[in-house]
Amino acid sequence: MSKRVGLEASFAAAEAARMADVDVIAAYPITPQTHIPERLAEMVADGELNAAYIPVESEHSALSACLGAAAVGARTFTATAGQGLELMHEVVYIASSMRYPIVMTVCNRALSAPLSVWGDHSDAMAVRDTGWIQVFCQNNQEAFDMTLWAFRVGEDSRVLLPVMVHFDGFHLSHVTEPVILPEQKEVDRFLPRFQYPFALDPDKPMTHGAFGPPEIYSEAKIAQEVAFRKSKDVIIQEFKEFGDIFGRYYHLVESYRTEGAKMLLLTMGSFSETAKIAIDTKKNKGESIGLISLRLWRPFPFEELRQAVKNAETLIVFDRCISFGGPGGPVSSEIRSALYNEKERPKVVSFIGGLGGRDMAVKDFEYVIDRGREIAEKGSKELFEIVGVRGKVTGIRG
Amino acid sequence: MEGQFIKFGKNLVTTDEFVAEGHSFCVGCGEALALRLACKALGKDVIIANATGCIEICTSPLPVTSWRVPWIHTLFENTAATVSGIEAGLKILMKKGKMPERDIKCVAVAGDGGTSDIGIQALSGAFERNHDFLYLCFDNEAYMNTGIQRSSATPYGASTTTAPAGKFSIGQTTWKKNMPEIAVAHNIPYVATACPSYPFDLMNKVKKGGEVKGPAYVHIFSPCPTGWRYATDLAIEIGRLAVETGIFPLYEVENGRYKLNVDRPKLKPVEEYLKPQGRFRHLLEGDIEKIQEHVNEEYAKLKAKVACFAA
């Protein structure tokens, strides 16, 4: 029997790694990720999990140790946040380019300076183009489900890519919610034993990580890109497989009460659940509004997004990261780009908020919806508007 | 130690080559020779993690490879961390019965920059965590792969491209970082220095380092004709002079116990070592005296440790 228990997202992710029977964990503590490695270290110490826990001296070494472990065929897991993800930045590229299916949880955190341990999506956006499959979670159940699913997708022989599971620091990582934990035999049915086909082995010597002269590099990178984009089919397939076994079906782009809606709000991560309440309130007042939540961030779900928003007149995109001097929030600029060649497309209005742990309450999303409608009707000189800051902000011109 | 290397011969030293011909090392490279000997000493049951640097670049241009043993390169500064993961991965996979039990040596290979500069944090961490691995530092005393830029292993007075000798500078103004002693300070079971001019000593140390349980560190002096600017047929002689002048003493530290492997009653003057090398050409008599004094002092310190903590 599956059981329903109260868990933080951090513990949910650790439970998923345990049930996936990971072989190697290498992690360095950073707020708000600490509960994940703490819990896993405890499981190893108590014999609940038969794994090697490597208490490395930095995040750079955390992911580097994961490379080595994955290269010999171990199922490998790590977790980090904010500055930690920045410190491992160059290793993040190596993991995807060398096709090691490492799974990493990122408890999304703002980037310094000023120092902030609190949540936003700046860390995630800084690794947007690193070639990792990336999903965002809305709640703690998803933190469990996506982590389990990440092993299955990444290790698929048609994929062999690392997967990053994002969930919001503190808002999810430190908040207890009910989570349904499946039975081990269901997990084993979903997640077969990892058999890495290219493991380093003295009986079959292989060279990993040779350098690419100009005659080779471009071919290597385009091969990686083609494989990465193709992984979308497996991602969809494994969401279905997951649903068939566990009863929870996930989609690349999630829609909430969008039928016939003229205006849509788009969010990512835990704020989607807050936004849903604002959508309910507005709908009750008779407004034509619905919510789109992006689950899959990379590879970007172009077709699914276009389908989801094609009938809307206005699309309000809410970002939790500033792209300094750029075309608005990183998500809104992706959305604009995805829709640019469409004959009929909604007007895109860009908001940024929830930076460095600044809360976004239901009323803030109601404001975003009201102001978004106003901007869509009357236009605005600003590229985006920031929500919930003191003082009037102007001069954000494209 | 059983099966010590004492002389070359078909049955004594393997004729197998683990780093294949066709690599692109410079003519007369001391490092390539040291690597070849080290790999012979290790045999085929190894996994090598290689830092970015001369060895990596000269042996692995896609689509070909010189490596006949499993080999991985990921980045410059993370090799000790990568090998940590390899070691931990093998151990747990064997423990869980996912891989047959066998002895596979986990070996990290890096240059002096990858070891004593950018890689020192990862190396210190791997030592402290007590992984069962051997770390080989091939020390050619500068960033040779990128064009002879100074490192913390560059000796005092050497001219490099980023610490050039000039009207107002002697070149390198700092003394060489003592990396083997930094390794010793981690209380690991085995630390040694080696030089390809003493091939059997080198091979025995690499072999011992591979057999030791826990971290082992072998610092290999790797004469570089390109960077040090000496004639390409002098690598062996330069290496020998470095040892005979006391500039690079050959010693090992086993469980904290010191042993000097080549102990000459009287050291040769450092001038004999410095003279054939273009990188020291600008040095004046007073500079050489200063280096001599420093070498005497360091050598005396080492001798005192050997006397105090004898093997």
Summarize the structure in words.
The complex is a heterodimer of chains A (398) and B (311). Chain A is α/β, with parallel strands linked by helices. Chain A has helices at 9-19, 35-45, 59-71, 82-87, 89-97, 122-126, 140-155, 184-190, 214-246, 271-284, 302-309, 330-339, 362-378; strands at residues 3-8, 24-26, 52-54, 76-80, 103-108, 133-136, 163-168, 176-181, 207-208, 253-256, 263-267, 289-294, 296-298, 314-319, 347-352, 385-386. Chain A has a seven-stranded mixed beta sheet, with helices on both faces. In chain A, strand 2, helix 2 and strand 3 form a beta-alpha-beta unit. Chain A is globular. The model of chain A has no long low-confidence stretch (mean pLDDT 97). Chain B is globular, with a radius of gyration of 19 Å. Chain B is of the alpha/beta class. In chain B, strands 2-1-3-4-6-5-7-8 form an eight-stranded mixed beta sheet, sandwiched between helices. Chain B starts with 29 loop residues before the first helix and ends with a helix. In chain B, helix 2 links the parallel strand 1 (46-50) and strand 2 (71-73). The longest helix of chain B has 24 residues, at 285-308. Strand 9 (207-208) of chain A pairs parallel with strand 2 (71-73) of chain B, so a sheet runs across the interface.
Quick recap of the structure?
The complex is a heterodimer of chains A (398) and B (311). With 398 residues, chain A is of the alpha/beta class.
Helix percent of chain B reads 25-40%
User: What is the H/E string of chain B?
Assistant: HEHEHEHHEHEHEHHEEHH
Per DSSP E runs of 2 or more residues, the count of β-strands of chain A stands at: 16
Largest sheet of chain B: 8 strands, mixed
CATH level-two architecture of the largest domain in chain A: 3-Layer(aba) Sandwich
